[in-house]
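== Item description ==
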Amino acid sequence: MSLTDYQKYKSTTVATNVSEETVAEIEESVAELQGVGIEESTIRVYDDSIYFAPIIGYTGKVQSDQLEELKKLDENYEVTDIVGRIGIEEALEQELQGKKGVQNLYVDSRGRILKEDENGTEPVAGNDVYLTIDADLQKGIYHLLERQLAGILTERLVNRDVTELENQDSSKKKIPIKDAYYQLINNNVLSLKHMESEEAGAIEQQIHQKFLSSREQIMKELESQLYNPNAPSMAELPEDQKAYMQYIYSYLSDSTVGIIQRDKIDSSSPEAENWKNETISLRDYLYSGISNNWIDTTKLEVSSRYSSADDSYDAIVRYILDHLKDDTKFTKRIYRYLINQGVVTGRELCLALYSQGVFPSDEQQVSLLTGNGENYAYSFMIDKISKIELTPAQLALDPCTAGCTVTDVNTGEIRALVTYPSYDNNLLSGTVDAAYYSKLNDDLSLPLYNNATQARKAPGSTFKPITAIAALEEGVISLGETVECTGIYEEVSPSIKCWIYPGRHGHLTVSGGIQNSCNYFFAEMAHRLSTDENGVYSTDRGIRTIQKYATMFGLDHKSGIEISENDPKLTTEDPERSAMGQGTNSYTNVQLSRYVSALANRGNVYELSLVDKVMTSDGRMVREHQTELSSQVEVADSTWDAVQTGMRAVVSEGSAKDIFKDLEVEIAGKTGTAQENSRANHAWFISYGPYTNPEISVTVNIPYGYTSSNAAAVAKNVYRLYYGYTSLDEILNAGALRASNVVIGD
């Protein structure tokens, strides 16, 4: 209101979506509420929002920084305007907005209308924007991704604890069912507030009472340890107490608390080294922080600025004990260990799903859960996940997200751009539903994050066709030449094991290297690319060459789509590993989609687009999509033949054969698996089809999806949907897809 208070006759909206009761009250009190009125307005309504929200976006009141930019384009924008906030709504704001009408009014000193001037101008409706998206394809792929994720979870969940040794292989990790139970609380599927409210059911009250009694005991133990001058080191603590102490340290270090000032800690000090090595207690470490001035005592209630270290430390402990009681994250940390230790059981949490209305009432299931033990609770969870009644997004376990892009390889038009999970943009349109927006922000599956345009991961072996093209075009290998894979490449240190090790592929041509995704072969190609004609090896030479060919395929810049996307990242180190899609290569789904489309059409790198055409509201054409060629990859026909033959062999003869053997469409593709720390592998699959006359490319990414066979299985079903071998109704009425048990070598 302060921005418009100098404009006497301009109204300011103070509330939207008011109730009928409010309307009646204001209209009845119009004499007393001078200058207050009710007006009707329009709001965007988005059909099938869950499928299209990440593309379309939503509208909302213009933000101050956005207003400054829009005024540069059109001075008629005002602080009260509703504009596109994200997605196509934002990108094509100028097309969609239309033009305001003008009405001249004569008013008295109190703002009452005396006369209307007829010489006004009528408003002009905004243009209509048509997208390239196939709606049914978009919907079907969303459910295919969800079903595949559900299938992976049901295959990986086990009714027992899992050791670290068991989970060393990132493609075979198991998920203890207790992790799923915990996620019901951690990802707010179950409401902790409801459990402690008067409306809580009997089972919720039972769970809450267990928590309260446990928390009281835990707080006493923490207080005892924090005041104990002989407190054990972090390494000596039980797992749960160690986790609580680590949480306290993180809590005090958080920028919103700021008691521990990490930037002032001398990381080379003995105390810091001991903390890193867990050979010191939190008590002793905090005392060192007080003496070394990286504890901000001004944020504590101490009697004097000259208080002793003991006074300051006592204030820290009191602060901790006072604030942790109401800290939701700490509450969830307690539940983590109550579930691990069986104090709060899976059966109880499953019953709470009915008590809180997460599942509709089912007396039979409640009776079965009540009368049976933990084995039945495990079976119950698997059943609910299989039927997608409990979704991967709700559980937010690895994996719970995925993306897929379908692109016309001959125009760059995107037929589907799908991210899972998604959100309802109707609840953000016009006026944001604050509770819903907060829920989205707290959701661990990150529904506001677009996994097709923002999830940037190492491409793994999907990058190998670029290396093959570079090797052939730079002349470091000829078409008929073979390289002998011995299983381990020892020309560099550390050596590179082929995925088949301790086996070996033997002699491979370029096409055979792609078909078998041989790490040895591509490490050797990179090594040759790094070596000049005099036999001098240089990593810089190899990296420059790999970057050159990646750039030729558009991997040095964004894909061209109209909505927001993360920048790609070309590799900068280790040519041998970079040639296999490792190193520091990092790309989004849409960027790999443009690259594989260029492989399909033999060199045309199109800027991708979501916009088909723009028309006026009365049906006149404003502009149609114009294919924009970013670059052309000029290489020999024999090079294209070799690469495409290898990619066809991946799905017809290679390790992915069992997935695609019954696919009605001939396609070519490349699998890719990328590792990330101690979590499950990322899964990639790039492809195009039909093989002899390419029309579309299909690119699938499943972060933490274990194996590329899962991404390939999704792609197979996308082709079946696109070409009519299955229907949208069949997909919508099915449950979880089986996780692929095909072992992919990449």
About this structure: Residues 202-227 form the longest helix (26 residues). Residues 486 and 511 are 18 Å apart (CA to CA). The mean pLDDT is 94. The chain has 29 helices and 20 strands.
